[in-house]
Amino acid sequence: MRPVLYILSFAAVMALAFWAYRENYATQQALRDRDALESRIDTLQDALAIQRAEWAYLNRPDRLRELVTLNFDRLGLLPLEPDQLGSTAEVAYPAPPALAIADPEIVNPVDVIGDQESLP
Amino acid sequence: MTRTPLRPLVRILQARAKGENPDGIERENLRLRNESTRDRARTRAQLRLLMLSAGFMAAFSTIGVQMGSLAASVPVEPRRAGAGAEVSATRADILDRNGRVLATNMLTHALYAHPRDMTDPAGTAEKLSLIFPEMKAPDLTRRFTDGRSFLWLRRVLSPEQMQAVHDIGDPGLLFGPREMRLYPNGTLAAHVLGGAAFGDESVRSAEVIGTAGIELALDARLRDPALATTPLTLSIDLTVQAAMEEILAAGMAMMNARGAAGILMDVRTGEVVALASYPTFDPNDRPNPVLPKDAEPGDSPLFNRAVQGVYELGSTFKIFAVAQAMDLGLVGPETMVDANAPMQWGKHQIKEWDNHNYGPLLSVSDVIAKSSNVATARIALMFGGEKQQTFLRALGLLDPSPIELAEAPKVKPLVPPRWPEIVTITASYGHGISSSPMNLAAAYATIANGGLKVTPSLLRGGAGKPAERVISEQTADAAVAMLRRVVTEGTASLGEVPGYAVAGKTGTAEKTRRGGGYYSDKVINTFAAVFPADDPAYVLIVTLDEPVETTGPKPRRTAGWTAVPVAAEIIRRTAPLLGLRPQIELGPRDGVTAVKQ
After folding, report:
1. Which domains are assigned to chain B?
2. Predicted complex ipTM
3. Any CB–CB contact under 8 A between A32 and chain B?
4. Across the interface, do A79 and B85 touch by the CB < 8 Å criterion?
5. Cβ B576–A81 below 8 Å, yes or no?
6. Residues with Cβ within 8 Å of residue B35, at least 6 apart in sequence
């Protein structure tokens, strides 16, 4: 009985040692991975900050104003004016559909009458 | 412990019977006793020695193990605790109210030299002077060869310059990372932002500290590492600010003014939506101007006229005297007051502008519309100087502005030390006491806000102070209605903007001479506007320094001809951007809308 117990406990110690050895290296690898990721995050954040600054610089009002002036013949942009705001009451109703008689393709008066009768 | 007797009686008797000496027994017993005592003492001493050596063993083995582990383990850099966002951004960004960037950081590099590591100091100096025009080759060579081991060359480098320095390839030239403060919009809102500079510098990094404006006023907040990734959101609207600066610069040129300032403030929250001062500067490259001896402080581009410019603001103050008199129940809008000019007070004579006489009687409403000095003085005398002081102080006109700018707390309005009746008279129409346009904006906002005190703020959401009532709501409404009449039929007729019902008050004050007295041809023109009058949302202050309008036969210097048209144009351009819909009178109704309504 006793030798079996010795062998078993020795085997358990070996297994635990093997496990601890692997865990140690896995942890070190995880730490290295984290460091690499963090430095990548830092680089990307720096790049992002630069991109944001660049975006703000390219969209600065002075430059936009110059671009609008340069491209006036294509875009025709003007500053926002109060009379560009209106109320919904000022929006015109859509034009009523043109009467069929106005359509020059129709030559037969019977067609025209039939068309008009079918309107709601 | 049982003590064994030295002379046991039994053995003594037996020994005597045998004829032996009983003393031998006693000696024998004494010897045994001494031996056992000696043995016990030795055991104790051994135990003590053992414990002592165990203690030393433990101490030395601790040191040994520590030394062994230090010698055997691989040296590892100490790791950073959290994720590394705060390391890359050491100073928080500043955004406008819509999240557009006003100030941010950019990673650049500083250039320094270790002259002792240089292979070819003269050649390196020559090549550096080709890259950087401000460096002179002979000067650099001398500094590279005089035996020093360290030398700063440049605080910031552009990426192209850095590559060029790299290409020189000298081992004595080194780069240190730098966070540089960047204002992508250039001169826009320069006086709000102020500027930043490097504080303590080292090879690895440098601290960025604010030098003026909000960068200095909120320096602690911007540098707080816990808040480094939370941007500071201002109340400034970039678009409105750009429009206001454009018009203000154009207006200043058209009116031949020496300087200009503009403030646009939300009357409900006290948020400053736009703040401009001319001449201006670029906070990316903050100048350090040397002014000529006779220059005014306002000639420096760094001078923030809206906050630091303490001027006699003239007739814009009249509404305060009238509002106070109405609040005290002394007059109503239609009460007739004595306006017979000139008014004699002791040895002083109070006159109207251009020696007019609006008298003999004028309604209070017309006092504001026509801007009568005499009638305002009579109204102020009704309640007297003490109440006037209290009221002006409640409006914040006699104290430094609480706005979050580094310049603001240092600017104390100029108030006479004593307050005799002549001061009451002059203060009622804005002379003899000086205040800043920012204080004036807050005071007008208080009136436009239905009489609840407004605290100006540059932070989104306002200062968040509980509003206390300064005047009653009825008085405030009546005061705004009077200000509206100034535009519709008074001195600010050029201020009418269709759809926006502008209300306001003009002010023209002669500039004070340095030696005392006033210039006759140098004025400060101010227009304090509130719009829209039926439901006030914004206050606009426009101040022009020494403007003159020259389209007429003779030069015109009153605010109605200079500051008012500029303010009207600012309102016309910015009101739609602020989301205010114009109340446009519709044309004659067509059939459809007539039926619908």
Report:
1. 89-233 (3.90.1310.10), 239-577 (3.40.710.10)
2. 0.71
3. no
4. no
5. yes
6. none
